[in-house]
Amino acid sequence: MPLYVVADTHFGHANLLGPRMARPRPFASIEAHDEYLIARWNDRVRPDDEVWHLGDFAYGASAAHCRAVFARLAGRKRLVWGNHDASRVRDLPWESQHERVEISARGRTFVLSHYAQRTWNKAHY
């Protein structure tokens, strides 16, 4: 079963497209942005695949929009909280939620966090 890791999708975050961003995302509208990300996600992820979202799933989107996007995304979705993951994101039916987590895959241990880490468990391996 494949395992995927993604972060900072920022569904519904219209300011990602504008001049306030150092590197604005190249979409005509936030709806086009969201549709593009959903299509790319579902092109790759199958229903039984495991997906770890490392925070900032959505920003500025309504709870209804968050639920609608979440429902369209394939896979068994797990969340590691980011700084923009308010209750509208945390209340979604994730398989699990974490502030930071260690997982094992392919014989290795990975530390998953939204935030950059100076050090972490087993960093010297």
TrEMBL record:
Query: Start and end of every Calcineurin-like phosphoesterase domain?
Result: 1-116
Q: Which Pfam families match?
A: Metallophos_2
Matching InterPro entries: Calcineurin-like_PHP_lpxH, Metallo-depent_PP-like
Out of the domains of life, which is the source?
Bacteria
Q: Which family does it belong to?
A: Belongs to the metallophosphoesterase superfamily. YfcE family.
> What is the protein's given name?
Metallophosphoesterase
Q: Which organism is it from?
A: Methylorubrum populi (strain ATCC BAA-705 / NCIMB 13946 / BJ001) (Methylobacterium populi)
